[in-house]
Amino acid sequence: MERLLVLVRHGQSEWNLKNLFTGWKDVDLTDKGVAEAISAGKKLKDEGLRFDACYTSALKRAQRTLDLMLAELGQNDLPITRDQALNERDYGDLVGLNKDDAREKWGDEQVHVWRRSYDVPPPGGESLKDTAARVLPYFKEHILPRVLGGERILVSAHGNSLRALIMDLEKMSGEEIVKRELGTGVPMIYRLNEDASVAEYRDLKG
Question: Which residues bind substrate (predicted)?
Answer without folding.
Answer: 9-16, 22-23, 61, 88-91, 99, 115-116, 159-160
